[in-house]
Amino acid sequence: MTQRLGRYGLDTGRPWVMGILNLTPDSFSDGGLVRGIDAARARAQQLQAQGADIIDVGGESTRPGAEAVSPEEETHRVLPVLEALQDLGLPLSLDSRRPQVVAAAMKIGIDMVNDVTGFRDAGMQALLGTIRDAGCAVCVMHMQGEPQTMQQAPQYADVVTEVFGFLQQQQQHLLACGFRADQIFLDPGFGFGKTLAHNLALLQALPQLSAGSQLLVGLSRKSLIAALLGRDAPVRERLAGSLAAVLYAAQQGARIVRVHDVQETADALRVWQGLSSSFHMRSL
Length: 284
Ligand code: HH2
Description:
Layout: E1 2-5, E2 8-11, E3 16-22, H1 37-50, E4 54-58, H2 71-84, E5 92-95, H3 99-108, E6 112-115, H4 122-126, H5 128-133, E7 137-141, H6 159-176, E8 184-187, H7 196-204, H8 206-210, E9 214-218, H9 223-229, H10 239-251, E10 254-259, H11 262-283
Parallel strand pairs: 3-4, 3-10, 4-5, 5-6, 6-7, 7-8, 8-9, 9-10
Antiparallel strand pairs: 1-2
Helix pairs in contact: 2-3, 10-11
6-hydroxymethylpterin-diphosphate binds near residues 95 and 139.
């Protein structure tokens, strides 16, 4: 079976791997890695060859403590690259919370809008009709506070109720605006205004959310991986932990996993799936 994602159809038989293409000087794990249009195109082609189903293009770091980038600068970073990726043959997601950037990108052609502020902004709300009519998917992410200060003292009375409540409310709103259910993805926003305990509570509760929604999960190389490793592992030592997290998320019902290490993630998911299907055959 296939499902539409913007202009493309993707196989629904397995979780989709979203490869991260950050065009930023300051992202927490790959800032400055890709400079210029040719390098961005080469990196996207590499991610595609490694097994990415979707490329997520971002022009602003939203890591804890990051400085906001002006919409003009963000547009300047992402637009030429989105243009250069049109013939790639893969769905393109734009990771942006700025309506100006999204509006410009929609004119070029994108397949998903990934908004880490969960479509709360009035300008983003005003764009919903255009996004819907283009058949573009949306990812609604939850974030408490702003990137610059969000990790200082995140607080919830009940993190699962609050985060899932927000996501489900946005989902209802999008459905009321005429979005198809399969155009909408929800993401608890791991590490965005959340302590380790908050992240773990949300991860464990994911099946509650996946029952009525499609989930996107981003755990790749995040500090919660280092925390679970029990040592101050630098980003380059978080691969094995990230793979374990991806498999756990897939087991919990994630439909899309957003990752930096595409080849390793695609391999891990393939083996996990092979094992689960042979388990099914044996148990018949
Ligand atoms: N995480 C990051 C950025 N965008 N979008 C969604 N939907 N979910 C996430 O978990 C998520 C996201 C942070 O990761 P990265 O892009 O590698 O870092 P930076 O924000 O420093 O560019």
